[in-house]
Automatic annotation (TrEMBL):
Transmembrane segments: 20-39, 266-290, 310-337, 371-389
EC numbers on record: 3.6.3.-
Name this protein carries in UniProt: Macrolide export ATP-binding/permease protein MacB
Gene from which the chain derives: macB_8
Position of the signal peptide: none
Main location as per UniProt: membrane
Keywords tagged on the record: ATP-binding, Cell membrane, Hydrolase, Membrane, Nucleotide-binding, Transmembrane, Transmembrane helix
Biological process terms in GO annotation: lipoprotein localization to outer membrane
Amino acid sequence: MFTIIKIAWKNIWRNPGRSLVIIVSVVLGVWASLFIISFSSGMNEQRIRDLLQNYTGHVVIQHPDYTREATVTSVLSETQQARALLARHPQVRGWTARTLAAGMAQTSAGSYGVKILGIDTLQEQGVTNFHRLLQEGDFLQSFVRNPVVVGEKLATRLKLSLRSKLVLSFQNLEGEITAGVFRVSGIYRSNNSVYDEGHVYVRQADLQALLGDSQAVHELFILTEDYEQAQGLASSLNEQLQQDRARHWAEISPQLAYMNEAMQQFLLIFIGIIALGLTLGIINVMLMAILERSRELGMLMAIGMSRRRLFGMITAETLLLSSVGLPLGLLLTYLTLQYFRQRGIDLSVVSEGMASFGYETRVIPHLEGAYYWQVALIILFTTLLGSLYPSLKALKLKPVEAMRRL
């Protein structure tokens, strides 16, 4: 076996140009596979973490009726008990209580449907990052009466600026339409322009006063140390809550969980396409090699080389070429990722399109270590698969006819 490998190693360098074609193909195949995986995973991971931290939460406690209809009357029944549970739970990184209402935002320039979030400013700043997204003003910290923070997209639509008046109308807990006049104290811009256009922030006490209940809370927005712990935390909380219900992010936003799974499937399909292209390339190059060496191969069979050894030699040549290209591809990928992890990949030229889908314009590649050996195994398997047809083709050569070829 060692002799076959030694002969195969010498054979691949008899024609360096042809060998380099396969080596470069393997290097580029490995690099492209891992780089696309890291880019897609990084973009997806950033979007999920951003959505969960700022919009959805890892776990949310709500009244069961609110999860079905999201009506303003479906306030929490066990607010104090839930607060106590969260204060001592080891998996909870932070939480904030919110009062919610769906209504209309109106100015002289027009009106638009919005979701109104009544928040405790200090609690909110300890959990989400919206206070860091302000483009103008402050995060409900001004001393004006009834301050409101609006998204930049909504401000443009309704022609709002700092200290502009904004009328918010919605249904109170008695089922009656009520309204309040607010002044814009801040304008924010997040990575999700759709969210910016449809969500406004007010002080929780101001919204509770308009609703008619100073204790009204609709949800407890909770973050864990890692969003993968969310399901366990939700189950733990539900065991201790009698009336309200805790839901983890995959229940709150099934489409987000589906998107995460779909991304994994997309990456597998993409790797498969690259592997298929690499297989066809190897088959093509090795068939050319056999055609050029048919006289040599016929002579080897004529002097007694068994077909099994001939098959092993050609297969070994292909695997050795991949064994040279594979570590080079892994090294190139590692160096590329190290570079972009420090600087990120700037997509600001398509910032508007990225914002409409909730993606950041600076992507940090993310690649789990398992992908290195998974892609390496796929490439080796692909190389082996690509060597089979040329090897079988060589076995069909007839020694006498092959030796007559020029």
